[in-house]
Amino acid sequence: MMQYLFLKKSIKQYLKSDIKQSFKNTKQGRRTKEVFMKRVKTGIKGFDELVQGGFPEGSSTLITGSPGTGKSIFGLQFVYNGAVKYGEKGLYVSFEQRKKDLIEQAGQFGWNLPQLVKSGKLEILSIPLDNVTRKTIDEFKKKIVKEKVKRLVIDSLTTLTVNAPILSSVKEMSLSEVVSESTVLSPPIIGDFLVKHFIYSFIESLHELEGVTSILVSDSSTEQGYMSRDTVSEFVCDGVILLNFEALGSEFTRSLLVRKMRQTKNDEDVHPLEIGKNGLMVHEVPH
Q1: Which CATH superfamily is domain 44-282 in?
Q2: What angle do CA 77, 83, 84 make, to 5 degrees?
Q3: pLDDT digits (tens, 9 = 90+) for 69-120
């Protein structure tokens, strides 16, 4: 028991120091980027003006909220508009919904995804959780580079963490100073730490894909003080957008808040959000 507690404490301290240093290095590296970078428009009515015209090119943005807030619609609209309005190829990776269901959902707004897929402007990957491995992640990142994808949506981080490919040797996790290289770490031992390390590493690897602007979907956190279910992605992503759905008397209302957006002077108000016949619309704050 004492050995287990020592192992748990040691790895926790290692991960905290490792991630803290990585955050420092990442921030220092990103400061060298030009202040006036290219903006990637979402094409969502009323949104782009909240972030100075769009997401910074090559950035990652977390879209988080409870079920039914419009997270997946945001992602679909981002890649659809990219292909139709801005001529940028998109890749939508889903670990939750089947390709057929996504196509039907998009069809409700008049978005013809099959046509875009056929023309090579969009690709939809529906990956069952049972098939997710580290090799799976590497393969779709290679696809992004090979096919010159410019817009990426991961839906969702929450589902990915349920079956995160975290069964790894100590050598792979760079923990050889804590335990021997022959040790194999599995979820029952330090599951929470390894899941967070995986999510951190996964998002950071997306930043290495030059010119690819990413949206990562997540359910909101059940823990106070955090915004995502994994409690890590909001710190690693360049931007965080909070979607909310609440009851006001007998009516329900949705709202959107840009919580942060690096290298951007973003709007800080909570805006009414509507799911209309043509997709999402962000309204001005009523006065």
Answers
A1: P-loop containing nucleotide triphosphate hydrolases (3.40.50.300)
A2: 85
A3: 999 999 999 999 999 999 999 999 998 899 999 999 999 999 999 999 999 9
Q: Which residue has the tokens 């619609």?
A: 73
How far is the C-alpha of 84 from the C-alpha of 173, rounded, in Å?
41
For the whole model, what pTM was predicted? 0.81
- State the DSSP string of 130-192: GG--HHHHHHHHHHHHHTT--EEEEE-HHHHHHT----EEHHHHT-TTTS-TT-EE-HHHHHH
Q: How far is it between the farthest Cα atoms of the chain?
A: 63
* DSSP structure class, residue 211: T
Would you kindly state where each structural domain of the chain is located, as residue ranges? Answer: 44-282
Question: Would strands 122-126 and 251-261 be described as parallel, antiparallel, or unpaired?
Answer: unpaired
Bridge partners, residue 260, by sequence: 240
